[in-house]
User: Fold Glutathione S-transferase rho from Amphiprion percula.
Amino acid sequence: MAKDMTLLWGSGSPPCWRIQIMLEEKQLQGYNHKLLSFEKMEHKSQEVLDINPRGQLPAFKCGNHILNESYAACFFLENQYKSQGNKLIPDSPDAQALMYQRMFEVLTFHQKIVEIVTYNFRVPEEERHDSAVQRNREALTAELKLWEGYLNKTDCCLAGKEFTLADVVFFPSVAFLFRLGLSSESHPVLAKYYNSLKDRASIKATWPPHWQSTPGPDMMKTI
Assistant:
């Protein structure tokens, strides 16, 4: 099964990491994979374009099926391998509804992070506007407060006691924030969530390799 799968990925990319976690959770180790460099623009290579014409990572092929959107890949893998590995969609209608709701809210959560990261990296410092920087930071601050409120209402994971698809897509973005210097003291609820899951087998096995050897920027330390 896994030998028919190919994943082209970039270290530290939350969308790539989601698929990697999902493959571990479903016990689909042994898939073909290749780590590519964003810095070297390898995501624009023909190898990637043959699978993902957008020239983006992840580029994921499962048999004859191409699923480059991380959410699509996660849903597909859960539905195709329901009886294998960990079950990631709860049976309870309440937990299931909450899982789906939080999953799709993660898209907004992650976008708030991206708006800060891409602004700082793509706009030269002399061309930045303080008002835009402040607006992005305030938007993320409000978003973090919202999610800490959500987590205060659950046992440990996003949809209750069990690890679900919502956590598969949420955790990489949370880890990315702490990689960028988010303060555990200022955000104890998110820190508790992060610390409770960072040693989970599927997460530990797929931890971004370059995070282990190089420190991240601290652009989020005052958020």
Remarks:
- Strands lie at 5-10, 32-36, 59-62, 65-66.
- The chain has eight helices and four strands.
- The two ends are 44 Å apart (CA to CA).
